[in-house]
Amino acid sequence: MYSLQNISVSYGTTIALRPVSMEVEPGKTLVLIGPSGSGKSTLLRVMAGLVTPEGVLAFGGAPVTDWQRVRRRIGYVIQDGGLFPHLTARENILLMSRELGLDNAARVEELAALTHLQQDQLDRYPAELSGGQRQRVGIVRALMLDPDVLLLDEPLSALDPVIRAGLADELKNIIGTLKKTAVLVTHSLSEARFFSDRLVLMRGGAVVQEGSYADFEARPADPFVTEFIDAERKL
Ligand SMILES: Nc1ncnc2c1ncn2[C@@H]1O[C@H](COP(=O)(O)OP(=O)(O)OP(=O)(O)O)[C@@H](O)[C@H]1O
């Protein structure tokens, strides 16, 4: 779905991504994991077309030249939903559809059912919803235009453990049922293990190891991989 060749990003004098190359396979879930500041969100923002990198980024087999067209095929979810506070949940969800002149009212109902959002919750403002409900609204909004790809930046990190476990199940089901390609950023190794077909561990803007969770355990490419796994286990 994505092919990245020597993608790098600097913010002024800060190097956020060193040349990174990777593939994101269609229909699979890739998880980006690594310590704070390692470049995970920057890489996701590059895939969302929100940051322009050096290097070559291809989507669906061709280098991206028209982000307008590509962005419609991508749903982007950030921590706490990233909702507009002055719009109700339903208005947030329908914003893009209205801009494009699409009547998607029925799809809201379908997706609300899939994410266990209730009617009265859809008519509330974000401040009147719990963190888990806001996150669900963010997920429904991202799914409205039926994107091929879901980009998820720490979608579960603001939630209490019970809600987090429930939403993790729902999200995994949604990704599987709707056959989406997903790229998910997390700090949590257990989340990474739960969601990933493939894992990418980053440090200092570079990829340390890429593979399955089993590869990371059985064949760590660098002492940092073992250190990272052990540190997470202790918690
Ligand atoms: N808009 C920005 N302006 C300047 N520097 C930035 C900006 N965004 C990120 N950075 C820097 O780029 C580097 C990578 O940041 P990024 O947010 O991609 O890391 P991350 O792995 O997602 O971190 P976290 O897990 O804490 O969210 C960091 O050094 C960060 O301080």
Automatic annotation (TrEMBL):
It comes from the Bacteria. Residues 2-229 form the ABC transporter domain. GO terms for molecular function: ATP binding. The keyword Cell division does not apply. Keywords: ATP-binding, Nucleotide-binding, Transport. InterPro entries: AAA+_ATPase, ABC_SmlMolc_Importer, ABC_transporter-like_ATP-bd, ABC_transporter-like_CS. This is ATP-binding cassette domain-containing protein. The lineage of its organism: Bacteria, Pseudomonadati, Pseudomonadota, Alphaproteobacteria, Sphingomonadales.
